[in-house]
Design brief:
alpha+beta; 15% strand; 235 residues; 5-stranded mixed beta sheet
Length: 235
């Protein structure tokens, strides 16, 4: 049997800190896309104070969720089930998700939405594609078609969310919006609109039309795909 060297806690900590410092320097100097998901998750956990446990926790997270994207889009409850993941680590992981969403939202906010529909679709996908329940959004626009607000008006079940036209009308008037875009997700992954989706689109459009307010589009997100009512001639 070969010699077994037992490392005390101080030595183990120093060795890992040395490794983590090299990882940080390499990340700053090299292209980030050269890093594996394992390295990225480990570096994130180390940066928020996981210390010598960062590598083990990164391995556990990837084994449980399967990818970096699914880690940062997991709910706080799901993350909390992983041994060693405390509230501080959960907060940092969710901070990464929120930072990514805000970067995408800036592309929507800083432009005429109809001139950059790709940015809108990407933002909707990032915000809703990993949800396990349906969530209904309304994008409220001004006369120049710039975004006033993006709000969740309803959350439901895996295949249904109740939406009340009168509430959408009231909020549209409160914000002084002159047009809106509807958006919701299908957790099934199929973005094709149901008859209920078409019906609620008609109901909201008719309710707002009497006040000269347009529903420009209704975007349905299903996994990595989207369905635009406008692009398919349904608006």
């Amino acid at each position: 049997m070969g010699n077994v060297i037992a490392l005390d806690a101080e030595t183990a900590n120093f060795s890992y800190a040395d490794h983590a410092d090299r990882l940080c320097r390499h990340f700053v100097k090299a292209k980030a896309d050269h890093f594996s998901n394992d390295d990225i998750v480990e570096l994130l956990l180390f940066a928020c104070g996981a210390g010598v446990n960062a590598k083990t926790l990164a391995t556990q997270l990837l084994a449980s969720f399967g990818s970096f994207t699914r880690i940062i889009t997991a709910s706080a409850d799901e993350l909390g089930k992983i041994s060693g993941i405390d509230e501080r680590l959960i907060a940092v992981i969710k901070l990464v998700q929120e930072s990514a969403l805000r970067l995408l939202k800036e592309d929507v906010t800083d432009t005429v939405i109809l001139n950059n529909k790709t940015a809108l679709f990407q933002y909707c996908k990032a915000k809703m594609r990993h949800l396990k329940i349906e969530q209904f959004h309304v994008f409220y626009l001004n006369r120049k078609l710039h975004l006033i607000a993006d709000e969740i008006v309803s959350e439901g079940t895996i295949d249904h969310t109740p939406v009340y036209p009168r509430e959408v009308v009231k909020r549209t008037l409160d914000l002084g919006a002159t047009s809106i875009i509807l958006a919701h997700n299908h957790p099934s992954g199929d973005p094709r609109p149901s008859e209920a989706d078409k019906r609620i689109t008609r109901d909201i459009s008719m309710a707002l039309a009497t006040m000269g307010i347009d529903v420009i589009d209704h975007v349905v997100i299903g996994g990595s795909r989207h369905f635009s009512f406008l692009e398919h001639g349904l608006m």
